[in-house]
Amino acid sequence: MTGSLIIVEGKTDKARLEKVLAEPTQIYCTHGSFSFEKGEKLQSIIEEAEEVYIFTDEDYDGKKLRQQLKEEIPWAHHLHTRKVFAEVARTPLEELAMILDEAGFETIKYQ
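RE: above sequence
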């Protein structure tokens, strides 16, 4: 794999991002937790990615997961939704497109 990898918490987050991305992008779902086994699997995926992004929720669990991932992947880029939305899955598609667009991704434009 080459290109970008976005790490998210849940399947709904992944589905929301897939709706706004206009370019092939691998999205890895942690299912809300991080373990040694997931770390090993993720490491092999990361090694093939040109860029790695972490996009977790702005709640306690999301921040905890972000911190764990930050320790494992200190060079990863961090994407954030606004606190008013709290979760990636609850962020409007227009807002997700704007966040991803600002990070350099090609997105579907919403009006």
